[in-house]
Amino acid sequence: LAPEPANLAIARLGGSSSFGPRSPGGDPLLRAGVDLFAYAKLDENAGTSFASKEGERFVGLGLDLYSAWTVSSDVTIDVRYGLFLPGEAATDDVDDPRHLIYVGITYAF
């Protein structure tokens, strides 16, 4: 969920850790983490930059699991999985959970 700044409060709780020896570039071999997000409208009767119900404050929860694997000093593979669980303020047409996947390769030269 990436709305424009308007009537939305976002709380984040998360952590990450690194595993394995450090690569020649100084990065850990594997970094993994998790973030939990909570979204709420500041004014339950005001509008937002996305469709939402008036009179409801809780927009939803988001979960983000991620890892970054340093294959070599030049190559990193990033994998992310996100889950968004809509709350009471979500409209009926978007009240199903949303699954998001991202895979990226970074080559630095």
Distance between the termini: 33 Å
Strand order of the largest sheet: 1-2-3-4-5
What's the main sheet like? 5 strands, antiparallel
What is the N-to-C order of secondary-structure elements (H for helix, E for strand)? EEEEE
Helix content: under 10%
Class derived from helix and strand content: mainly beta
State which percent range the strand residues make up. over 45%
Radius of gyration: 18 Å
Lay out the secondary structure:
Layout: E1 8-22, E2 28-41, E3 58-70, E4 75-86, E5 98-107
Q: Any overview of this molecule?
A:
- Helix content is 0%, strand content 59%.
- It has strands spanning 8-22, 28-41, 58-70, 75-86, 98-107.
- The chain has a 5-stranded antiparallel sheet with strand order 1-2-3-4-5, with no helix packed on it.
- The relative contact order is 0.22.
The gist of it:
It contains no helices and five strands. With 109 residues, the chain is mainly beta.
Q: Descriptors for this entry?
A:
single chain; 109 residues; mainly beta; 5 strands
